[in-house]
């Protein structure tokens, strides 16, 4: 009996040692250590670029600032060639579509944004030009054909050889929000909106989060350890009792076959 208990303890230790939560670093999705708050629908009423290489998206109550490289990934939203048509017909037909969403870290006033953009194929060159020189952080489809090289592959290179009529750009590869910014409130926002407000606002969804408290983190760790312990017990019992049930299983098999 002592040997069985010792074996059980060793198995539990082995099973639980591999369940240590990873350290939270820049590669860990922030929502893994955040608590989700109530979300809300918002309207983006203005998009501006400033001389100091910053991009701002202005909503009714707050603004979102994107600096340098992050702001450049918003370039497809600045193209007058198709944006006016898109805002007029967005989501009303299958030719133009824009879905914009934000994940807001309310504990640190940070924001991550992604979007999905659908355009007729005739705007391919404009869309390519808006992303020229940037590292790929997107996924692109011509109709249902996924494009690995957006700047060199032509629609005719898709295997089915069917005519392509639409481009779909996912800015947020594999559901990872890759455009990082800050939550701010511009002092002169009313004046800015008078001069540069969008003729039609862009509907968006805002997901709000806050940092988990120490007690929430400890509670999750306790739950993980409890589950790990339970799994370890089940595995240990299965291994210890195998000499009993395995021969019986081997014997029942041929009998059932007859």
Draw up the topology in text.
Layout lengths: L1 H15 L17 E3 L3 E11 L3 E5 L4 E5 H5 L7 H10 L7 E9 L4 E11 L3 H8 L6 E5 L2 E3 L18 E6 L7 E6 L4 H8 E15 L2 H27 L1 H16 L1
Parallel strand pairs: 5-11
Antiparallel strand pairs: 1-11, 2-3, 2-11, 3-4, 4-10, 5-6, 6-9, 6-10, 7-8, 7-9
Helix pairs in contact: 1-6
Can you walk me through this structure?
- With 258 residues, the protein is an alpha+beta fold.
- It is 34% helix and 31% strand.
- The protein contains seven helices and eleven strands.
- The longest helix is centred in the last third of the chain and has 27 residues, at 214-240.
- The chain is flat and about 80 Å long.
What are the key terms here?
disordered N terminus, flat, single chain, 258 residues, 7-stranded mixed barrel, 34% helix, alpha+beta
**How many beta-strand segments?**
11
The whole-angstrom Rg is 27 Å
Structural class: alpha+beta
Total helices: the number is 7
Determine the fraction of residues in helical runs and give it as a percent range. Answer: 25-40%
Oligomer: single chain
Q: Mean pLDDT, nearest integer?
A: 80
Distance between termini? 39 Å
> What's the shape?
flat
- Beta-strand portion reads 25-35%
Strand order of the largest sheet: 2-3-4-10-6-5-11
The parts where pLDDT drops under 50 for at least 5 residues are: 1-25
For the largest beta-sheet, the strand count, sense and barrel status come to: 7 strands, mixed, barrel
Secondary-structure element string: HEEEEHHEEHEEEEHEHH
In short:
The protein contains seven helices and eleven strands. The protein is α+β, with helices and mostly antiparallel strands and 258 residues long.
